[in-house]
Amino acid sequence: MTHRVAVLDQDLCQPQKCGLECIKYCPVNKSGAECVTIHEESKKAQIDEDICNGCGICVKVCPFDAITIVNLASELATDKIHQYGTNSFRLYKLPTPRKGEVVGLLGRNGMGKSTVVNILSGKLKPNLGRYENPPEWDEIFKHYSGTELKQHFQKIEQNQIRASIKPQQIHHLAEAFDGTGNELLDKYDERGVSRELVRELGLQNSMEQSLKELSGGELQRIAVAAAASKDTEFYFFDEPSSYNDVFQRTGVARVIQGLAKIGKSVMVVEHDLTLLDFLSDYIEVLYGEPAAYGIVSNILSTKIGINVFLDGYLPNENVRFREKKFSMDVSSSSTDIFQEDTEIVNYPKLEKKFDSFSVSIEPGRVRKGEVLGIMGANALGKTTMMKMIAGVQKPDVGSVDKKIKIAYKPQYLQNDIDVEVIALLEKANGGPIEGSQEEEQILDPLKIKKLYNKSVKNLSGGELQKIAVASCLIQKVDLYALDEPSAFLDVEDRIAVAKFLQKFVRSFGKSAIIIDHDLQLMDLMSDSMIIFEGESGKAGTATSPLPKSEAMNRFLKSLDMSFRRDEKSLRPRVNKIESRLDKDQKASGNFYYKH
């Protein structure tokens, strides 16, 4: 038996611009029934799931890719937790919070992580799929009888559960709270720990400023501190790594683990696998079809959970949720393939001084087909170096050969422009996109075509990032400079973009310089690396390009973190601090995994 899911993307459906192909070609409609119709109020297509036969013709003929139809195993029908309305997103199964443990939620964007957080925190009452006549609490308790979730929902109904949530969108915090970091923590600190948190999160110099003046990283860590300082039973952290460098991410991880150590239930949504590996005790994988439906897996250990996600297969449930597995092989990043004469740019020692900050960069070069990774703490001058090589900023000492063409993707993206994505891409391309070579080589692999008719201002953070990466890569240049291309991307997109970038640069004899704080990603795509050191906000120094193993070893040593390789997936794994492996590797000076 199968159970049908038909989902319509309201943003993409544009009946006034098409020939209503979904209605014309539907075989059920042709037989005289009304399966696909136009809804009177919304003026958008609507699909009757009860009579739809799942043939998928409407999916293929829709010119805007607005329809998703999936056949699911009928057993799942009884596990439906919530559905928002007709032809809209639905969630199956729920993760169970665990006292004294950190549970990581791992999955693509659009799989229902926010729905999970809202239900478990009591913000949203689960309707078990009955959005027209939602059940009363007694029926929900009956549905969960014999499970830990029954007690959880009983406590929610009796207002005995308080939840503290660090939301994904932190800029709303600065808009909603008119005051300084100190004032915010004074308001929320119920555990008397604000001073300790400020120290652990490196916020000493940010607390006197108004939230509106803070950088993204400072605002993110203040939001983490505010959520952690409340005294509640449940803590949810939605993407706590965004905007933070690796040092700040480990500080955030320790704060989150500290809550589990005092017996609290903690859940974390995070797309940086290094951080998720470092801070989680367990993993629950979310899989399904983005924006259509999401299913929560059974609970798994951190190691198995991440490996299962990369494999795209859940052995215990016998479910394959992705056709291809992601491998983390690093054989591809050998430096033997570069000849001496394939230099695309070289630069002498560069120096730049500002009023209260200076940066000094050792000489280096970038070769054809090479991805040069740049790593280091925030505010050491990484972006300044990028801008000097790109010719956007002039160094005080040294000069960069001007003859090469560079395309630059900035760290902060503009999302307030009301133009269609296709117009933005055509401007970057300097000509039509549809049917072009660029579409085939760049936009198809990055899955951008379905966003063509969306307005830039309506894109999600991840969609905007992919558009920014694509519009950088379609420019006809020699060197691509990308500042934090992983920000806001989910794990699958991160790995896909990293692998695509490396393949693109190699295949077409281009070169790329990439700044990012996701260690696994940098390990996956860099051929050589530059490490920035110094004192954040005051003075930064950059090494010359180093072989990857030497650079990673030096960088991990500065983090006091050691990596090993997972024997199955070959991905780098963080050794738990003070574990036997951690001590052995550090004692031998080998912070980067043993080969």
From TrEMBL:
Ranges of residues in domain ABC transporter: 67-312, 342-558
The 4Fe-4S ferredoxin-type domain, residue ranges: 43-72
Keywords in alphabetical order: ATP-binding, Hydrolase, Nucleotide-binding
GO molecular function, one term: ATP hydrolysis activity
Listed Pfam families: ABC_tran, Fer4, Fer4_RLI
SMART domains referenced in this protein's UniProt entry, alphabetically: AAA
Protein name stated in the entry: Trehalose/maltose import ATP-binding protein MalK
Top-level taxonomy: Archaea, Nitrososphaerota, Nitrososphaeria, Nitrosopumilales, Nitrosopumilaceae
